[in-house]
Amino acid sequence: MRIFKLLSVLLDYPGDGMLEAVRELAAGNPLAMITSTDGTNVLDQAEHRVLADFITTMLARDTTEIQAEYVQTFDLTAEHSLHLTHHIFGEEKTRGPALIDLGEFYRSYGLKADEKELPDFLPVILEFVSTLDLDEARVFLADVAKVLKVLAENLEKSASAYAPLVRIIEKQGSLARLAA
Question: Quick one: CA dihedral 26, 32, 37, 41, positive or negative?
C-alpha cells in the first residue's frame, strides 16, 4: 500500500532529493496526490487533509530549516526517537536481540532492509508495512501501537508537526485491535 510508503518518506530525513520528489509528486496539489496514493482508502478524508497540510507546510519552508527541525526533533531528543525499540529498551543490551529478531522477520518476508538503518526505525517499518495487505499491515502496526502512542504523545508535548503523522500510523494499529 503506497500510503504507508508515503508516510515512510515523510518521516525519513528530509534530504534534498526527498523534498524535490515530494514537491514534484504533489505538483501544487498535495491533497490530490495523497488521494491517488491512497487508492484503497486506507486513511479517511480528515487524515488525507492532515497529510496534505503537512506537505504544504513542509514544502513552503526553507530546506535547511526543515532539516534542522528534523534533526532537533528526532536525532537530538531521545523521547522522540524513531527507533521504536529505544522506547522499550533504551540502550540496554536486551535491545540487540529484538533488533535481530525484527530484521529476521523482515527477511522471512523477502524484504532486504537497508543496512545503514536499524530495523526498528519507523520509516523502515513503514516500508515493510507497505508490502503487506491491509489486514496484515494493521496487525503488524498493532504490535507497536503502544510505542507509537508514547511517541505521538511526546511529539505532541513539544508541538511537533510530525505528531499527527505518528497518530495516523498509531490509529491503523488500533483498528486491528478493534476488529479482533
Answer: positive
Domain boundaries, the chain: 2-179
Cα dist from 21 to 6, 9, 61, 71, 75, whole Å: 11, 10, 15, 20, 23
pTM given for the model = 0.93
78-98 tens-digit pLDDT: 999 999 998 888 777 778 888
Q: Among 167, 165, 177, 175, which Cα is nearest to 10's? A: 165
CATH class of the domain defined by 2-179: mainly alpha
Query: Among residues 148, 141, 147, 127, which one has the least CA distance to residue 176?
Result: 141
